[in-house]
Amino acid sequence: MEITIKLIKELRDKTGAGMTDCKTALHETNGDIDKAIEFLRKKGAATAAKRADKAANEGAVKIATSSDKKSASVIELNCETDFVSKGDNFQNFSLELAEAALKNKTNSVEELLNVKNDKGLTYRENIDSMMASIGEKIELRRVKFIEIKDGFISSYLHFGSKLGGLVAIKGEHTDDAYELGNKISMQLVAMNPISIDRDGISKEIIEKEKDIYFSVAKNENKPDGIAEKIVQNKLEKFYQENCLLEQEYINDSNININELIKNFTKESGTEFEITEIVRFQLGL
């Protein structure tokens, strides 16, 4: 595959690595961007690997929750400019889509676009009409519906409607439990965990991280025994940063989320178990 300047710049924008490093990485991976990012991480040249999946889209994330708190939906609606995304029409329409997703219990973008509103128009037709009047591309990017029968759902929508999170909790819906759920939803939005616990992280991800840590250690000429210890230490830190239950609580650095929940269940005598998490960030 031809390694063009455009491809090299794309990799540089996603990783922050130098042009020469990007060119080398692309040659080594036959022009595969994802493999090139991994190559750079192993070499220690990428300064912001997590930027790789980011997009420049504007828009809004909106959440709708049922009155009994047992079901909820979150959607992401995109547009081209921040000016349009901040407008009342766009914000209200985004919320209407979230409410329609909740009512229709759908996880399908296509299905939601074919739902009709109270004026008899499908949401696809609504979007086409908005594009014609605004002059910008508008796209429903994704939708997620969740429900729980033996518990409740807490949520948090960050100011500006760019970030939103849902947390499904097995247990009794009390004021205190719901408030705790909302705090954990804020944690979810702020700290972006991969999963609830270690069981939720795929073996593929773990093996890739271990491979990267080991490669970095060997590049630093560490003996195999030392390199293995470094890998295990870094893997533990990876779990603590990416498993919600192991994350340091943002409101109290002395405890993690698992300890926060244990304290609550001990004091309240009620069950509180996180069963599902959903996090939407604009463009990711």
What features would you describe in this structure?
- The chain has 284 residues and is α+β, with helices and mostly antiparallel strands.
- It has three domains: 1-54, Orthogonal Bundle (Helicase, Ruva Protein, domain 3), CATH 1.10.8.10; 55-147, Elongation factor Ts, dimerisation domain (Tetrahydropterin Synthase, Chain A), CATH 3.30.479.20; 148-201 and 243-284, 2-Layer Sandwich (Tetrahydropterin Synthase, Chain A), CATH 3.30.479.
- 48% of the residues lie in helices and 20% in strands.
- A three-stranded antiparallel beta sheet has the order 1-2-3.
- Helix 1 crosses helix 2 and helix 1 packs across helix 3.
- The longest helix has 19 residues, at 224-242.
- The chain is flat.
- The two termini are 28 Å apart.
Biggest sheet: strands side by side, in what order? Answer: 1-2-3
What number is the mean pLDDT?
A: 89
Query: Total domains, how many?
Result: 3
CATH domain class name of the largest domain: Alpha Beta
Structural class: alpha+beta
> Which H/E pattern describes the elements?
HHHEEHHHHEEEHHHEEHE
Give the N-to-C terminal Cα separation.
28 Å
Largest sheet: 3 strands, antiparallel
Radius of gyration based on Cα positions:
22 Å
User: Can you tell me the CATH superfamily of the largest domain?
Assistant: Elongation factor Ts, dimerisation domain
SS elements, strand count = 8
**Shape estimate:** flat
Helix run count: 11
Q: Give helix % range.
A: 40-55%
The CATH architecture of the largest domain: 2-Layer Sandwich
